[in-house]
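note to self: dont lose this again. the chain is below, predicted strucutre after it. 102 aa total, dont forget to put it in the shared folder this time
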Amino acid sequence: TETLDFALEVEKLTTAKRGNLILNVDGCIGVLCCDMLRGLGYSREEVREFVDLGVLNALFVLGRSIGFMGHIMDQKRLKTRLYRHPWEDILYMMPDEPEEVK
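---
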């Protein structure tokens, strides 16, 4: 598609600068949603308005949800409990008195 082709060309430029600046799942979902809207008859201006308003941000949870479901299915298949990170790695100490901001 036109938008995906453009995004892949941008990826070539960004990965030339840094290898980790790839078109990730969120970017790909956004690109494909823009293409889908164009395919449904929305104008470039209407699609741009959706993007500017942040409407597509709600779709980025999709990639995370699919990954989370994959983890759950793996745990069920392996007959193990869902992984929980150790408390001592996620808790942190707070000072008794708040620090004064200068």
